[in-house]
Amino acid sequence: MTMSLRASALILSATLALSACSQGGLFGRDDAVDLNGAQASGAFGSVSDPRSIAYFNQIVGDRILFAVDQSTLDATSMATLDGQAQWLMTNPEFIALIEGHADEQGTREYNLALGARRAAAVRDYLVSRGVAANRLNTISYGKERPIEICSDESCYRQNRRGVTVLTVGAGV
Amino acid sequence: MLTRRSLICSASALAAATTLPGLVRAQNRPLRLEITEGVIEPLPFAIPGFIARNGAAADAAADITRVIAADLRGTGLFRQIPDSAHISTVTSFDAPILYPDWQAINAQALIVGEVEQQGGRLIVRFRLFDVFSQQPLGDGLQFVGERDGWRRMAHNVADQVYERITGETGYFDTRVVFVHEEGPKNARLKRLALMDYDGANVQFLTDSRAIVMAPRFSPTGDRIIYTSFLSGQPRVYVMDVASVRSRPLEAISAGNMTFSPRFTADGGTVVFSMEQGGNTDIFRVDVNGGGRTQLTNAPSIETAPSFSPDGSQMVFESDRTGGQQIYVMPAGGGEVRRISQGSGRYGTPVWSPRGDYIAFTKQESGRFHIGVMRTNGSEERLLTASFLDEGPTWAPNGRVLMFTRETAGANGAPAVYSVDISGRNLQRVATPGMASDPSWSPRLP
Questions:
Q1: What percentage of chain A reaches a pLDDT higher than 90?
Q2: A114 in contact with B at a CB cutoff of 8 Å?
Q3: Per-residue CA distances from A33 to A117, A146, A163, B129, B228 (Å)
Q4: Could A105 and B363 be called an inter-chain contact, meaning their C-beta atoms sit closer than 8 Å?
Q5: Which residues of A touch B276 (CB under 8 A)?
């Protein structure tokens, strides 16, 4: 890589480090494994600790699913996000990066835009439930980071997701 | 990379030798292949191994002959008559052509050539003959270049043959920027890479630490614009091909995702999508900096812009009516007009460099297609069908498309394919591994 890229990467990674450190790489090799969120590793704390990331990921639920080509929230999603909002307000030391994802049934750039729409829908809902907007960032991965890899609806529905990824840090 | 090798094309050098006395003009029409009519029967040609003028040129002569033949065969428009069927052997570049020997094996075009190595340089000479008219087709030509530029010299010969027989501009001396992919489907590594149009000379432009996607060449081929997650967010970067140096397109992106960049026809500005609060619109910015101009303003997704070659219009996709459809608007703003009319969803429109067609991705009933339509949406024609085809890119002559085809399932993998605009000659491009998002360069200078 060039010097200019390296320099800009350093500057930007300083802002991202806040949200990235406890989850490993947000982009690149480790991503899909980390984003699975199912494994409660030590860094996430214990599921039995209601203030832990593990508790948030598994008991509150770190993700919601979307219908094909949609970014609207159904009742199940809203219930999950209500729980997320409550948890976030109870645990103000955490900030969140909200990831929007799409299934592979779509063109690449459209899916990137669709993922952004989904991430924004999650963020807007959490804000409407009282979470400070400056604790929430969004990112879209489009169809670049599926967690399920088969090519039928059973996998697609898991991939059309919005994931709230926690990290400890001040609001940004 | 697009390093310019001194490639001098001298049209005069061999003109004197092209008039061959004493041969009767046959009754046949001059050799001509009309691509627009849809070629069903490929035109048979013979290419005896180019003669090595000196021993040092032997390998280059064989390699150049092989690449010229592969270029022509690869179009689907030409069929090579195997050397084993040849009656005449060509032992001298200047020897008279024994037309009856080539007529007897039904070779309609005959390509003869020779290669000479002088120090680190190669000299390639060739002549093209219309066998049944018994005369040369165009002048003999000579190319001079560096030894390691032999592939480009071969592509230049093939471009000349293609142009003289079809009347269309050749596309063999071109490169393709694409995304090289490695690793499992849920943890893909992606790198920008360059290759010759035929998959040779692969060069990596980025490492795999960040997701990259959808690169595009500038109209002069010296820059590449693409989207990278290097900063964490998807963001547009510009790369100088010669130095392989990149910089963000805009110094400040204010945390908004930018993606889907394309150069305008003059190369001076870039149009791209920017997301704000979950909504995506299309903007334009000078490639060297300056303020953004917003081109679309709607609460829907507007992305995948492409300019007409004359710069007067922009085609893009939008889901403003629910699903992705293709729209055209004047470059300076104004009335937006939907042109995709069929059922299903339409995306990734790309204006042909000839201006006559728009290529697109169509999604319908769980299948994907690459297609072309007239710029007003008429004469829609689907060229491919598969589990997942997307992202067409035009050859500089507007006759051939490359695109991404991805197979289904847990082991699904992307590859680059090409197809001509009649839907024939579907071929996989020989990339070194999984590959996606091709973008065809202009003809190299």
A1: 71
A2: yes
A3: 24, 10, 14, 61, 21
A4: yes
A5: none
The mean pLDDT value for B422-445 works out to: 95
Burial B22-39 (b: 16+ CB within 10 A, else e): eeeeeeeeebebebeeeb
pLDDT at B200 over 50: yes
Question: Rounded to whole angstroms, how far apart are CA atoms B29 and B402?
Answer: 33
Give the residue-averaged pLDDT of B128-143. 96
Q: Which of B408, B305, B300 is nearest to B348 (CA)?
A: B305
Question: Is the minimum CB–CB distance between A167 and chain B shorter than 8 Å?
Answer: no
Partner A contacted by B412 (CB < 8 A): yes
pLDDT one-digit tens code per residue, B141-158: 999 999 999 999 999 999
State which amino acid sits at residue A132: A
Note whether residue A161 is domain-resident: yes
Domains of chain B: which residue ranges? 14-166, 175-440
> Chain A contact for B296, CB < 8 A?
no
- Average pLDDT on B348-359 reads 97
Q: Which of B192, B211, B321 has the most A C-beta neighbours within 10 Å, making it the best mutation to test the interface with A?
A: B211
CB of B239 within 8 A of CB of B216? no
Contacts of B436 (CB under 8 A, 6+ apart): B178, B179, B181, B391, B404, B406, B414, B415, B416
B348 CB near a chain A CB, below 8 Å? yes
Handedness of CA A35, A36, A42, A44 (dihedral sign): positive
Under the banding of pLDDT at 50, 70 and 90, the label for residue B38 is low
Residue A19 lies inside a defined structural domain of this protein: no
Closest B-chain CA to A141: B234
Band of the pLDDT at B37, cuts 50, 70, 90? low
Topology of domain B14-166 in CATH is Rossmann fold (3.40.50)
